[in-house]
Amino acid sequence: MAAVTAPLTGSTNHLRPFNSSRDLKSAADLVDLCFSATLDPDGQSYLRHLRETASGLPFFGLEKLWGMSSLPPVGYVWEEEQRLVGYLSVIPFIFRNQRRYLIANVAVHPDWRGRGIGKALTHRAIEHAREHHAHSAWLQVRDDNAPAVHIYQALGFLERARRTTWISESLQEKDVAETGEQVVSISKRHTWHWDLQRRWLDRIYPLDLSWHIPFDRRVIEPGFVGSLYRFFTFVYPRHWVAQYKNKICGILTCLPTDGYADGLWLAAPGEENTLPDEACQTAIRTLLIHARKTVSPLRPLSLNYPAGLWVDPIQAAGFHLQQTLIWMEYPLG
What we know:
The chain folds into 2 domains: 15-134, Aminopeptidase, CATH 3.40.630.30; 165-324, Gcn5-related N-acetyltransferase (GNAT) (Aminopeptidase), CATH 3.40.630.30. It is built from 10 helices and 12 strands. The chain is of the alpha+beta class. The protein has helices at residues 20-35, 41-54, 59-66, 117-131, 146-155, 173-176, 194-204, 223-233, 277-295, 311-316, and strands at residues 15-17, 74-80, 83-95, 98-108, 136-142, 158-168, 184-187, 238-244, 247-255, 262-267, 301-306, 319-331. Helix 4 links the parallel strand 4 and strand 5.
């Protein structure tokens, strides 16, 4: 099919709500076409479940997907010539007693791009959030997708954060010998470390953004409340503390997941740091390598971190940059 370059006429007759029984397969095909090159194994698994459900498997398959946060009950599609060429989903969240909507999976067929379809779909999603009295609408976009970033900025979205996802590579022989272990000591976390860890986590994983980061702090809190929460959630984290000359310069937590990679949550000093920068870099590198060796040399580890922060020690510990996402907000009052 030849690329279509004619502009939109302004009509919204092509735009309608997503119908799961009618549109599921076409939406899955479109998401696969647009995003398959950037999907991680968890994303590929989600897409397989989507296809299985669309193929007419028993209803419990749909229920299983509906329980996944990545499959919302609401979305919108754009049709041309009785063909689905545009799609997005709208996912509701409640945070601090405020309703928010995440606009996700914004996909437009390559042959129909440049006609304003993505912009029209996004505008309808904003109106959906407004109609449901939401506090704001959010979306995430890769930092290397300049056309999409421009569209969202033109619509009025404001950048709130840039976060990079790092994935560990296969453990190499050079990583096994932790060069920092002579000057950095690694120990278990104790209760008295929690206040410092929590303060650093508040800066690195701000509470105002934590609603879209899969990190429940209750599961890592020490004491009776944390123990009770871990007992009922069956999640048991592991913690390590790095010290340089008896001063703490990093606290790392590993949370097991059902996905292809376990999650790492790194608490490290910021502007208040009084230690030499080289010492902190060595400590972070040593912490990350220690976690890779301790958890499993074969189990991938994922680290979500502010873009541009501690890049050198993270890379030196054997992690590669998977993607950097810009989180953008459309305030609604």
